[in-house]
Amino acid sequence: MNCMKSWAFRTFAVLLALLALAMPALAAKKAPPKPAPQAAPELSPSLPKPWPVQRFVLDNGMRVVVHTDRSAPIVALGILVDVGSRDEVAGKSGLAHFFEHMMFQGSKHSGKMEHIGRLEAQGAEVNANTSADRTWYYEVVPRPALQLALWLEADRFEHLGIDQKNVDNQRQAVLAEMAERIDNQPLARASLEVEAKTFASWEMGHPTIGSAEDLQKAPLQDFVEFWKHWYSPSNCVVVLSGDIDVEQARPLLADTLAKVLRRGDPKHTERKEAEPAGHVALSVPDPLAKSAAVHVAWRVPAYPATDSCALDLLGQVLGGDESSRLEKRLVREKPLAVSYFAGTHGRRDADLFHVSAELANGSPAALVEVKKRIGEELLAIALHGVSDAELQRARLAFEAAWIEAATKPEVRAELLAQFETWLGDAGKVAELLPRYRAVTAADVQRVARQYLTWDRQVEIDAIPASWLPAKTAGKPEWVVKGEKALVAQRAKEEADAKRVVVSPVALPDAATAATLPQAASPSAPEAK
Prior knowledge:
Layout: H1 12-17, E1 54-57, E2 63-68, E3 74-81, H2 95-102, H3 114-120, E4 125-130, E5 135-142, H4 146-159, H5 164-183, H6 188-198, H7 202-205, H8 212-217, H9 220-230, E6 236-242, H10 246-254, E7 280-286, E8 293-301, H11 306-319, H12 325-332, E9 337-344, E10 350-359, H13 364-384, H14 388-406, H15 409-423, H16 432-437, H17 441-451, E11 458-464, H18 477-498, H19 510-514
Parallel strand pairs: 2-6, 7-11
Antiparallel strand pairs: 1-2, 3-5, 3-6, 4-5, 8-10, 8-11, 9-10
Helix pairs in contact: 11-14, 11-17, 12-13, 13-17, 13-18
């Protein structure tokens, strides 16, 4: 199974990469820089047509979304279980991710890994992934194999084999995965701290993969109760996207998933995060690291909040491609970084804006310089905004990534499932692109000023163990100067907004003027 990070259904990094690892990670190594484009291509005057969807609910409470696309004889079958690491309790972390593995270990009528084997023998693609906010299972199958796929899903959702042998086996598999992806990867441990320090609550901030200590001590009953509680049909959305319509889907579902027993109606807690208490700085020494990395992050609103779209476009302007500001400052002007990332994580209820860079040459001085250059670009956007060309390129990049991702039936299915789960209506996916087109340069400047400030920032340095952790020296002088300039800029803008501009008025002719009452003489204009 793929172990995934929080999957953003709107951000550039995820729409381009689709799905990534279970923790925030640095971008892939960048190719040699290319000449930056000077002008952005024009946006298409028309948006892609909305995906037609039909929705209904099975008797056991499972919600169904059907999207018909006859372009190929295949169907993406996806089931979103509305549970992620944000639903776990302290001391019992990692259970949501654990079941991503456990669901393939056999059920009443299907042996260990047989779910995958039987479908792949029919030419299907099968996978699953977990995030902080949901667990996603999907198959892309030839149309004749859909009935088998639905039967296999119904069998494991009704009769999953949760016994001590299977639990112990998968417990070891997850522990091995932790070692491979975190313990033995340079700079990975620090990336886990980004969400942990940015979010106020343990539920929102702990890693989706969980802790080794919690998994090792969890008894069998914890796993049984977690599955019974969260894997009830009423907590799931099934999506059929492809060569199928509602009339074809209903009888197939009636013989399979509709027969899964409803085990209750889980209640979710909306995670309302407290406002950041101030600047946070942390150094994470890493015995495997030969270079260093920097992470800066801020708590920001999650979609569908209006500001989330502007923040996504800001991330694209800052670090989206070879024309971005970080490309210029960290690669072209001076080769300081081998990779970088800027954007949101696509979280639910509350999100974070994250900028990271892996250094080309590991030295404390280079680390300070990289953080300064990132901060200077953010201050420049807060002070002066972004150009029309930058915003145009950002919008175009988002729409291109959306269109490319949506060519994959499993991606369409997941997007529809997430909109149905989080916003209550899969059809609201049609509202997304128009909202990004409505973002203005003033919106991008405003969100930079409002959210990406020093006093709301989490700053994490991943450094080689041989380095001495940097001492916290307070707010750097360049930040102080930038904030003073921003205060002055705001004062000027407010004064400009209050200035009254009198438009010229046509004077009446002499005959008309004689009939009008005489006005008092105006005061002399105030000297400017």
